[in-house]
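Lecture 7, part B: from sequences to assemblies.

Below are the input chains for today's worked example.
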Amino acid sequence: MKLKYILLSSLGFCASSLAMGQELSRNIPAQAEWVTLINNKAIVQHSSYELLNDALTKLGAFKEINSMHDVQVNNLNDLGINFDKQSFIYGTSNDSLNYVGVLLPLNDHTKIEGKLFSTFKSLPDSKNYKRRVSADGATQVAWNNELLFVLTGSPSTFYFDQEAVAARYGIQVEELDEAAYDGWGEAEAAVAVDSTTAYSDYENNSEDLEAAIAAGTAAEEDVQVVEVVEAAVDSTSLDWTAHDFELEPPTIMDFDNTVAIADTASIVDVDDYYANDAYTDSIYQVQQARAVHNDSIRNSLFVQWLALDFEAQLQPIKNLAGNKAFQKIDNKNTLARFWVKDVDLLYQKALPYSGAYQLGFGIDMQKINYGYQDGIIDLIQDGNTLKMTASVGLDKDVQKIFKNIYQSKFNKKMMNYIPENHLGYLSLNINSEAYLKEIPALIERYYAPLTAEYADMLSIASTALEIGLDEKAIGKVMKGDHLLFINEVQKVNREYIDYVYDDEYNYEEVTKTKEEYIPNFLWMFTSEDQRLFEKALKYAEKHEVAVNNNGLYTIKENETGIPFYVLMKDNIVFIGNNEDQLAQIKNNSFKGSKDAKIKKAITANTMNLVAHANAAPDMLNKLGIPILEMWEDTVAELPTYGDVYMNASGLKNQRISGEIAVEFPKKDNNALQFLLNKFINQVNKSTNLGE
Amino acid sequence: MKKLKTYLSQCLLALCCCVLFSSCFDLVEEIDLKSNGSGSIKATLNMSKSRTKVASLMKLKEINGIRIPSQSSITTEMQTIVKLLRATPGITNVQQHLDFNNYIVTISCSFNTVSALNSFSKTLATHFKSPMGNTNSYQYDSKSRVFTRNYTHSAALTKEFTRIPANDQQMFDGAFYTQITRFDLPVIAQKNKVAKISNTGKAVLLKVRATDIINGKANLANSISLKK
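Predicted structure of the full complex, as structure tokens:
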């Protein structure tokens, strides 16, 4: 249900001006951990209402809304959304719950009143906002003339798994049910008694749902009732702070005195549950009963807390309007922006409750501190190119480490050996010497905080590594700049086994050859000290694995049946499987590409991964690689595509950044129109096939 | 021998999903029949001509709805076949070889009577739920010295084949099925129009395109008369 509301909210991918966008960002609480900005205006301008309506119709979005709300919404304009403003989706959380808030700009609030949320229960107006709540109480909405606000979320399972918290709220943890493993009978009885006792009053209260809603609303304005609530739940602070669970907790029997809306949807009669469940394993049944019991408590608490926090979320005292992430945005081309307040924090929260790791390995995952600060991901349309750019802020210590690692000049001599025809390439440019020197710092920074008692040992080990390695010497062997090109496919002779027959049709196996295409590659890197490679090649020559042809070494056929070649020239080591190409480099007859775009990308970025998509179909055909049916149309269309690429531009302005991009065909005006039309055509095709 | 047919179907329908997408392969069936009705059979599936493609296909789990067997599942399947063979009365000396470098699969066994082969074929066809077991069988009359192969085209095979996209069907163009039958007595006559008698007169060779078998254009039935 919640997802549907979020889906509905995402229909707010509609547009706005920067100034107007800032107005709505005032409604995002300052403690938001992540925010998605949807630039509705840019999206509409780069596509069209007609195209968007068509795509959403094909997606079934309007049908979904109509079935959810028993209304007739046939296009975006029926939603009353202001497409000149930005929409926002944000997330906040504390140790016990997670909220997701959706802010949609409106230009006709009557369409909300008349059409949407018709199945929701009405709540009394609050500060010029009309309010409604879902039947299960887990979603509340409010709107005025300018905005629609939807707040939903979920309780944190990890929080309730803690022993003290579980005991406080009557959550059944696994350890408490050890009896279940000794005998199902006792456990079944225990669960049945617990559940029926806990919810008998609950069910009675469900009849008074509207009264409960009214009580909930009143609670926000009536100090007397708030006091009751304070005694009953963890926190009633309206400026949205963490709940104080040191206060006297409520018992489940207290629910009828709280502002909670009964979670009727989650009330399940345990005995009925067993009767209907075909699964007869007793432990499984105990676990299921426990899950039903615990979910009901968690959901009920969540409903109470959401009701209490709604006002603070709707009109936060401190907001994100002044955040640079929402001020500095290319309003014309940025379609959407995802902002994360603290990437390290996101890591920590994404990890499971770390008790097991700490107990088992002494690793405290909650102490992750990679030095990552805020993160920004932008979806940008640049003509027919669609880009996703990402950047992460770094703290000073980590900045220093990365600055040293990325401080490296690309060997410009390698630019002379860019093959004219290639399918794609990978370039990498880091400072090997600095990287090796920074390894101890990286280890201490990344891993020592996690390992608690082993942190000192890790520090000693990293220092030993630093002493043991001669970074400068290793840096000379491999400087850290690499170029790998996948050239065009080339014909090679491959052996296979066939049969010949004698006069009695006895057959004999014979080896024949056939022509096959294989992709060939050219890898080059700077090496100012090539002694190690020279000695290794001489060793291989001595053991007849390699053949030296005036400095061009042939490494004999291996399992793949394809030999490869090694050449050292001008402080560069070349490795490839195209003998002609290596020979040309050796004889100074190699004709390199003059493409300035490639050279610029290689020198400007620390990493590039580029595939020339238009060359792919021919290569796939020559290599005989089968195409999945679902990809046939796309592959057939690839000759009209440009490049698909990914790059990382290193450290700039205290941030590391990179981007992924696809150059779409130019048959449509821009990338967004191409994608929408492709989606619509794909749905039409599937529909026709279905018919 | 009927085992071979079943084996063929197995290769086409299960183990050789790779074959479906490899350009060329050869399936060679050799039968050495003694005048008393006993003998040996060896079947070889050779995909070495397409080994690069087969190797890349083996890295996929499924393509266009057709499951691509892994190396371990092929090995397991082969072990099942061997187990069934060894459990079949009248079948002995079962041997198999899987060469995953050249992608050549070989299986061979000895049989006491031709009917032992037919019963094995039935068992295998039942195990793999293949219709092929009912469309192919062998007979040998030691008195008249006539060796007969009964063959009926399986419509199910054609139906399965039509489910493969047209582009992929073309990949079968370079695939052949070869049957060699050797005797310890000279061959007087054979009735299959495509088959040939060897220069020594003691063997018969039949080589047809795999697509012709699948589409019912090739007839594998034959009746070979030996000198009494």
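Note for the exam: The interface with chain B takes residues 494, 496-499, 501, 503-507, 514, 516, 518, 559, 624-626, 628-629 of chain A (CB under 8 Å). Keep this in mind when comparing with the next example.
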